Amino acid sequence: MQKYVFSFAASEFVNFRWIEFKSLAEIEQLSYSVSESKDDWLRPYIVVEMENDDSVLSIIKRSVLIKSAFHLWCEAATLSELIQQVANLPNELIDPYLNGCGTFKIVLSSAHKKLKQEEKIPIIETILDAHERIDAQVSLSSPDHQINILLEYTPKNLGKNTISSGGHLCRLLYGRLIGSSIRRNMMNDYRLSERAHLGNTTMNVTLAAIMANVGLCRKSSFVWDPFIGTGSTVIAASVWGSFGGGSDIDYSVLHGIGMSPKAGQDPIPVLTLDGEQIVVEKFVYLGSCISAGGGLSDNINARIVKARTAYDNLGHL
């Protein structure tokens, strides 16, 4: 087992990080060792032990909460400790990336505190100087390998869903970039602004993708959403090869008609049987009477009648 680091996308849906990772590991049938502490999963970086790079790539290829993954070379609480560890890194670990014929670049990123470029450069140079030798050439535009320095600062203030920057440096991680997740591409490909029809309760794209992961959606599995609405969960599940369907009490939402943030609604579809048009005046669904076009006027009238009858029955009391 080797140590890897997952970095997360800001503070987005932090309570789903652990369950999403656990679900994806189950889908891919991967073995791992990681802290299950809620506090650890709320931090910007989590260290996970997994078998190899391929195992890590199978996780981040569909995770929407993990931003990037790194092979962890060393970890320390202070810069001086990290420099000592860098100086003692085994050659067989770093030579393929820093002393081979390929190219590399070093990227420094920080969490809970934004650093200026002039603050980053001395840290990068100090860590590079700690290596016994580096023969590989630097390429900032298209490197063969990317080495990352991850700095974690303590949040200055922890409020509700907000983090104010300015704490002290509490953890440094150093390692090689394995890959980045497809979260940004997925969010762009399925963004709500591209949908033909939206409802008042259309689910956030990111949350729908998380649900598909937590629901263990995979190729040839079947997903049924009894409150499908505009289909966000089924769309997210279908990305990973699942078959999906659903039902909903709201006729207008199901057929993309009526009030919507999107313009250009289609008319009510025509139902036919053997070429003959079927006209449905109203029908009862889960105890509610649905009018033609998805309205609730008949249901409201029926409830008023029931209320009047119940009130009249109280007259003898």
TrEMBL record:
Keyword Manganese: no
An example Gene Ontology CC term for this record: cytoplasm
PANTHER family named in the record: RNA METHYLASE-RELATED, TRNA (GUANINE(10)-N2)-METHYLTRANSFERASE HOMOLOG
Tree of life domain: Eukaryota
Record key words, sorted: Methyltransferase, Transferase
Domain tRNA (guanine(10)-N(2))-methyltransferase TRMT11 N-terminal: 4-181
Natural source organism: Schistosoma mattheei
Lineage, broadest ranks: Eukaryota, Metazoa, Spiralia, Lophotrochozoa, Platyhelminthes
Family matches, as Pfam families: Tmrp11_N (PF25904)
GO molecular function: methyltransferase activity
The keyword Transferase is annotated on this UniProt entry: yes
Protein name: tRNA (guanine(10)-N(2))-methyltransferase TRMT11 N-terminal domain-containing protein
GO process terms (BP): methylation
